[in-house]
Amino acid sequence: MTATDAMSNWDRFVFTFFNADIAMKYGWEILQGASVTILAGLAVVMTGIVVGFGLAALRAIGWKSLNFLIIVFVDIFRSLPPLAIILVLFFGFPAIGIVLPSLIVLWLSLGAVLAAFAEEIFWAGITSVPKGQWLAARSTGLTFAQTLRYVILPQAVRLGIPPLTNRAISITKNLALGSAIGVNEILGRANSALSMSANATPLTMGALLYVLVFIPLVIASRMLERNYRWGEH
Amino acid sequence: MSSTAATPASRYLLEARGVRKSFGPTEVLKGVDLLVEPGKLVFLIGPSGSGKSTLLRCCNRLEEPDSGSIIMDDVDLLSPRTDINAARRQIGMVFQSFNLYPHLTVQKNITLALRKVAGMSTADANARAAEMLALVGLPDKAASYPAQLSGGQQQRIGIARSLALDPKIILMDEPTSALDPELVGSVLAVVKDLRDRGITMVIASHEMNFAREAADKVVFLDGGLVIEQGSAEDIFLRPQEDRTRRFLAQIRH
Amino acid sequence: MEQFTQEFLNLDVMAKVAPYLFQGLLQTLLLCSFLIPIGLVGGLLVMLLTTSPYRVLRWPAIVAVDFFRAFPPLVLLVFVYAGLPFIGLRVPALLAVAVAFLINSASYYGEIYRAGMVSVPKGQREAARSTGLSATQALLYVTLPQAVRNVLPDLLSNTVELIKLTTLASVISVPELLHSANLARSLTYNSSPLILAAIIYLILLLPVVRLIARLEHKL
């Protein structure tokens, strides 16, 4: 690295990680990766939570055979590493004739994982609503479905929001794995800029961009956690 | 009055006969009869575990009895042809732990069943809720949440909630046991008021003084069986059975 | 259907690659054997900092924790592994994994410990001190056991996440189970090695996941 030999250590550091010229040259591309990350993230979060909620509500009905399937699905997708799921879908499916774009593979994999965790969180919420709530509602003549809809689920959802936000954040961070299968999200673009420029600034930009995207969510979840605790007492 | 499984008219509003209920290996009710005439206040007394709660819960089928018959207002509650949700509108229930819906305002707590089960319009339901709140002495709490109220107030809301559906009978399961002593009076005042209005009630409770004043009939339950029953005077002043005497002695101390 | 079995459930391929995957499994277990302890200890340190009565320690710690909770682990890993050489630091892949995962897991474990400490009512410590126990004794015998019991499901759950995290190491070619499986896939042009690896992960982690679910419901 002859260009940097003459610099002081600090200058070298800045040149490598915070190089303004490189930033300008590749910044726009990397920023475009952010839109992919954000859109994919929204898709994963929405489908994951809706599917997870639906599974938990179905589980509340109590059909044994359906519950068995739900539990199997949830256990498997909570135990498997997301990267393993992504690789199986990405490499395996084309071999049996199902060719899916990388982004779809990413969405399906992470969506399924979030759905599994969301189901468990909502289910924990449903079972922790005191039995007295069921008794009171049924004793006034409300049907099972009405009780579930107006009395139990609203409480279960409120209970589930703090753990759910945490879980959603940690699962959507896996969107960075998309770079391993060619999705043009932040890390993917940063990596290609990295190799083209032989400079680490794209990496810094990518990292900061990711943090920028997720920090509001992390702070929101921290505030939610505080409110939740007060609501309990 | 809506069910299809009617039986010949009887002089009892609630007629439970031979009710048996087991939970796993434990037999909690061993063949209990409970007969309640319209407009009367019946007190269930007995030690913990005697089956009072279970009996009340069988009377609106929140628990399914293993055998026996339960006829409410000439309707066979245990028949599969009976629409139990419609029947439950006629039977009010008040719980020891109030069981108010924490995520709904007091008004919504009361109007939920009115809107969803009785099909009332929101305006009508709210009007009825206001009536009920006035009845239990809490007219200005409609917009409050249960968590903002004292225990006594919550229980009175619980009574208002069960009253709103205009039931033929109200079952109360230890309504004052979870309350601080100072708050018990306010709830009992409401119960007495209901009684004066002619509402039929069955109350499982330890409040012996109240029973002496207000109960038309006292039933002593122990170990899943009715040991003795009679007027409040009969039971408290002239208990016939040994077990009754022992229980009353324990309660007095 | 026939094609499906050939591609994903090919027993011949699985048998062929099994020893290779087994080595990968050992590598994964080795990784976990030092990642988990340093994460647990790191988390303890983080918790002490974020609950410190000294604002000068607490605020920077909380900012750092939130910063690193918003930092995707893969990006952190790539940053450490590919970025640092640019300023002349040769970072062996394994060290990059250790550093990146330590930063990540310590933040999460720290938050879990903190939630645990907060979940024990203050009255417990007061009761303990009022019977003459010292601050340290109260912490050790009264507060910590309750704190740990309250957050045990979360601790286990985060440990499972850490074990799953090791698969990210395959992206920078650190040998572990998924890496071996992926390599085997490209060499055999068949996805069965991936399925075999998935089965191994299930055998390893499903019992713990079930345990966590049971513990969560008991609370």
As a percent range, the share of strand residues of chain A is: under 5%
Q: How many beta-strand runs of chain A? A: 0
Oligomer: heterotrimer
- Total number of helical segments of chain C? 9
Q: Compute the gyration radius of chain C: what is it?
A: 21 Å
- Helix/strand/pairing category of chain C: mainly alpha
Mean pLDDT of chain C: 89
Strand count, sense and closure of the main sheet of chain A?
none
Summarize the biggest pleated sheet of chain C.
none
The tally of beta strands of chain C, per DSSP, is 0
Number of helices of chain A: 10
Strand coverage percent of chain C:
under 5%
Main interface pair? A-C, 55 and 53 residues
Order of helices and strands of chain C: HHHHHHHHH
Q: What's the helical proportion of residues of chain A?
A: over 70%
Euclidean distance between termini CA atoms of chain C: 44 Å
Spatial shape of chain C: globular
Topology, pairings included?
The complex is a heterotrimer of chains A (233), B (253) and C (219).
Chain A: H1 2-5, H2 9-17, H3 20-61, H4 64-79, H5 82-95, H6 102-128, H7 131-139, H8 144-172, H9 186-197, H10 201-232
Helix pairs in contact in A: 3-6, 3-8, 3-9, 3-10, 4-6, 5-6, 6-8, 7-8, 8-10, 9-10
Chain B: E1 14-23, E2 26-36, E3 41-45, H1 52-59, E4 67-72, E5 75-76, H2 84-88, E6 91-94, H3 106-116, H4 122-135, H5 151-163, E7 169-173, H6 181-196, E8 200-204, H7 208-214, E9 217-222, E10 225-230, H8 232-237, H9 242-252
Parallel strand pairs in B: 3-8, 3-9, 6-7, 7-8
Antiparallel strand pairs in B: 1-2, 1-4, 4-5, 9-10
Helix pairs in contact in B: 3-4, 3-5, 4-5, 5-6
Chain C: H1 2-8, H2 11-50, H3 55-69, H4 73-83, H5 93-119, H6 122-130, H7 135-165, H8 177-188, H9 192-218
Helix pairs in contact in C: 2-5, 2-8, 2-9, 3-5, 4-5, 5-7, 6-7, 7-9, 8-9
